[in-house]
Write a structure and sequence with these properties.
- This protein is α+β, with helices and mostly antiparallel strands and 126 residues long.
- The protein contains 2 helices and 7 strands; from the N terminus they run ββαββαβββ.
- It is globular.
Length: 126
């Protein structure tokens, strides 16, 4: 079970990195950002037990566009969304987001708001 708290909140995109690691992308929204004074991240959860602490996989700050928006409106952030891990298999034996071999999969995350960039996450083992 994965529970949110003030440090880990508002999950809106989930993908399995492997058979035991769930990636959860946050989208707190402007009001919650202001209340908690935190920006969004992607967290890696080991789903083998609730006692295992999540690890920050990606931390997002503000790029120039999001910073200008924050200065003008008091709001503005870069949120990770569009989290996707897939090896391209479309069979019923392998649901999207859970590749048989994470090393053979392609990983992507979109930075929404700000510059709206798409990043491919690559392994140093390749």
């Amino acid at each position: 079970m994965v529970l949110g708290d003030a440090r880990h909140a508002a999950f809106d995109n989930l993908a399995f990195a492997d058979e035991r690691t769930l990636l959860a992308a946050e989208d707190r929204g402007d009001g919650l950002h202001a209340q908690l004074n935190r920006l969004d991240s992607v967290w890696a959860y080991d789903v083998r037990g609730p006692q295992l602490r999540p690890r920050r996989f990606i931390a997002l700050g503000r790029d120039a566009v999001a910073t200008a928006d924050a200065a003008a409106t008091g709001e503005g952030d870069n949120e990770p969304t569009g989290l996707h891990v897939s090896d391209g298999d479309t069979s019923v034996h392998q649901p999207v987001g859970r590749p048989w071999s994470p090393d053979d999969a392609r990983w992507f995350v979109t930075q929404q708001h700000g510059l709206n960039q798409v990043f491919e996450i690559v392994s140093s083992r390749r």
